[in-house]
């Protein structure tokens, strides 16, 4: 290695360290805040690693504030909206791709561009009129605004790139369209379904605005519950940071485990769920 | 989008099966459930919003047709005018900064180095993390006395800032969070662009004795221009309708210093329950987003979409 090459290598590593550090620092600091007693969180200069870890921050969050209920609400809303989204969106992506009717997917683009808030006014009135407020149904239904377009969009891209030969062969062998989809197209597109599933889960789980309008006391999802902790309860930083970490932990774990799929989906398909 | 997804047009032509009575099958049964769902949660709300914007909604739950009265209120509403200015300021900053830093980080991540995949995973984490959760931690970091940001600034001799607690710095501070969160998306899109560049131009440039900057400016930049344009459009659409971060950190404050159209829309519709006026704001807002998108689409006319069309 020449001196120039070594220098290049060194500069590259410095550059990498610089661009990764804001993300890395943030999450380390988040963890640090969540593990410190109030004294340490108010210390100046700030303390990164405290002498005593305040594990009780996590315990107080998990035990009080009806966290388990809100966790369950989040699971039900995200789970149902994603499952319905898959049942509706995967066949639709297939149909649109096979009919080459991608022009009809314009609605999905509109959903992509429209601020999520604007769906809330009419659906809010509709849910009130139907007497659904106070249940989880309004949130499940409105989360379809997030999950269905993401799933359809990713699946169109996936089915377009899968070869038709096998499907044609199966058709000639006498399989009907449904059998072709079920036994030929779907197994091939399985990685696409995984990507669509992961992204739908993440963007539904992270959603906040639908919850603040539609959730009642018993039907809050986790992001709304965490937000309410800031505004209505005089909590210290430790438990707040612990709550924040608990909410985002499932998503962070998913990002680490399924990093490659997520990146493939983000660059090839729908982007942000709002 | 129709042209964005024209990639199927360039896909290899599917050969016709031997059977002479073969007809292209109808796939409507596959699409029908989605059409019903999308109509219920996307098309109906939009039609209803348009209708509501022409009505005056009273708390009792009755509405009366008032024509364009709600729209005529907009130009006379100083808070709306402020919100438009804030939105444009916020959007311009949170498009330019992530584009600049995203390009830089894409070039860096395009190089090969140890642990690249792992480090890229960390770099991408902010965009996946729950916005309310990260907003909460940013609020703590912005704290003028106890926040870690002012401490970090003090290490390099910069006086403490009031960050989101001061009208003149609140929007730049929020843009900092937005940039931190969404630069990775720009990086990912551009990384795709960089991967598509052939090596020959660089080899001949090297022979011609081009500098690294010249190679970036004359080869890399033109080659990734279409990707940059896609990234710019996506970022613009997302920045203009940003909500979670602003609402969770400042709720539009201090005062209304960081109130964007989206936040004002929220207040009008769900704090004052002025449904008709809120709907009118929603319609104008949507028109603004579409307008911006069309403008950007017109700007990129000659760029190739096929590789990245799906990203929109």
Notable characteristics:
heterodimer, A: 274 residues, 14 helices, B: mainly alpha, two-stranded antiparallel ribbon, 67% helix, 2% strand, globular, disordered C terminus
Describe the fold and architecture:
The complex is a heterodimer of chains A (274) and B (312). Chain A is mainly α. Chain A has 14 helices and no strands. Chain A starts with a helix and ends in a 6-residue tail after the last helix. Helices cover 67% and strands 2% of the residues of chain B. Chain B contains 13 helices and 2 strands; from the N terminus they run ααββααααααααααα. Chain B has a two-stranded antiparallel ribbon. Chain B starts with 6 loop residues before the first helix and ends in a 13-residue tail after the last helix. The N terminus and C terminus of chain B are likely disordered. Chains A and B meet through α1, α4, α5, α6 and α7 of A and α2, α4, α5, α6 and α8 of B.
Strand content of chain B: under 5%
Count the beta strands of chain B: 2
> Compute the gyration radius of chain A: what is it?
23 Å
Identify low-pLDDT runs of chain A: none
Order of helices and strands of chain A: HHHHHHHHHHHHHH
Average predicted local confidence, pLDDT of chain B: 86
The biggest sheet of chain B amounts to:
2 strands, antiparallel
Q: Rounded to an integer, what's the Rg of chain B over CA atoms?
A: 24 Å
Estimate the helix proportion of chain A, in percent. over 70%
Count of discrete alpha- or pi-helical segments spanning 4 or more residues of chain B: 13
Tell me what portion of residues of chain A adopts beta-strand conformation: under 5%
Count interface residues per chain for the largest interface: A-B, 115 and 101 residues
Q: What's the oligomerization state?
A: heterodimer
- The average pLDDT value of chain A, as a whole number, equals 88
- Assign an overall shape of chain A: flat
Structural category of chain A: mainly alpha
Helix amount of chain B, in percent?
55-70%
CA-CA gap between termini of chain A: 49 Å
Number of helical segments with 4 or more residues of chain A: 14
Give the biggest beta sheet of chain A.
Answer: none
What spatial order of strands do you see in the largest sheet of chain B? 1-2
């Amino acid at each position: 290695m020449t001196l120039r090459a070594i220098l290049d290598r060194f500069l590259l590593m410095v550059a990498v360290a610089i661009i990764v550090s804001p993300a890395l620092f943030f999450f380390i600091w988040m963890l640090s805040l969540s593990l410190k007693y109030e004294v340490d969180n108010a210390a100046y200069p700030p303390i990164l690693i405290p002498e005593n870890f305040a594990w009780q921050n996590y315990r107080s969050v998990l035990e009080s504030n009806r966290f388990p209920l809100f966790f369950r609400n989040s699971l039900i809303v995200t789970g149902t909206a994603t499952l319905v989204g898959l049942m509706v969106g995967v066949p639709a992506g297939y149909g649109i791709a096979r009919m080459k009717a991608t022009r009809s997917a314009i609605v999905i683009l509109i959903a992509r561009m429209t601020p999520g808030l604007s769906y809330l006014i009419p659906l809010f009135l509709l849910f009130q009129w139907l007497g659904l407020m106070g249940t989880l149904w309004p949130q499940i239904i409105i989360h379809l605004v997030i999950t269905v377009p993401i799933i359809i969009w990713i699946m169109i891209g996936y089915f377009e790139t899968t070869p038709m030969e096998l499907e044609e062969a199966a058709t000639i062998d006498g399989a009907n369209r449904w059998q072709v989809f079920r036994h030929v197209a779907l197994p091939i597109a399985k990685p696409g379904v995984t990507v669509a599933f992961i992204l739908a889960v993440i963007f539904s789980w992270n959603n906040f605005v639908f919850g603040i309008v539609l959730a009642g006391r018993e039907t809050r999802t986790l992001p709304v519950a965490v937000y309410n902790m800031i505004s209505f309860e005089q909590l210290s930083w430790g438990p707040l940071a612990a709550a924040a970490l608990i909410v985002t932990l499932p998503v962070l774990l998913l990002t680490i485990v399924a990093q490659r799929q997520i990146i493939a989906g983000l660059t090839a398909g729908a982007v942000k769920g709002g | 989008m129709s042209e964005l997804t024209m990639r199927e047009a360039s896909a290899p032509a599917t050969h016709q099966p031997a059977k002479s009575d073969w007809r292209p099958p109808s796939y409507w049964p596959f699409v029908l459930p989605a059409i019903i769902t999308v109509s219920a949660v996307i098309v109906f709300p939009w039609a209803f919003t348009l209708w509501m914007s022409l009505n005056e909604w009273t708390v009792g739950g009755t509405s009366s047709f008032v024509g364009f009265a709600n729209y005529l209120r907009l130009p006379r509403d100083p808070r709306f005018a402020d919100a438009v200015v804030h939105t444009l300021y916020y959007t311009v900053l949170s498009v330019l900064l992530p584009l600049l830093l995203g390009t830089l980080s894409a070039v860096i991540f395009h190089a090969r180095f140890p642990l690249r995949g792992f480090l890229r995973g960390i770099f991408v984490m902010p965009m996946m993390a729950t916005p309310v959760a990260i907003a909460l931690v940013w609020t703590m970091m912005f704290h003028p006395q106890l926040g870690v940001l002012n401490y970090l600034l003090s290490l390099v001799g910069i006086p403490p800032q009031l960050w989101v607690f001061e009208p003149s710095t609140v929007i730049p501070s929020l843009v900092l969070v937005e940039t931190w969160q969404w630069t990775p998306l720009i990086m990912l899109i551009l990384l795709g662009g960089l991967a598509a560049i052939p090596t020959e131009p660089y080899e001949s440039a090297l022979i011609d004795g081009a500098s690294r900057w010249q190679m970036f400016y004359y080869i890399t930049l033109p080659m990734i221009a279409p990707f940059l344009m896609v990234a710019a459009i996506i970022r613009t659409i997302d920045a203009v309708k940003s909500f979670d971060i602003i609402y969770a950190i400042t709720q539009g404050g201090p005062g209304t210093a960081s109130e964007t159209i989206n936040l004002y829309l929220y207040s009008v519709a769900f704090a004052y329950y002025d449904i008709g006026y809120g709907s009118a704001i929603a319609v104008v807002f949507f028109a603004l987003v579409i307008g911006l998108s069309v403008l950007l689409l017109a700007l990129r006319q000659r760029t190739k979409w096929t590789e990245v069309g799906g990203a929109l």
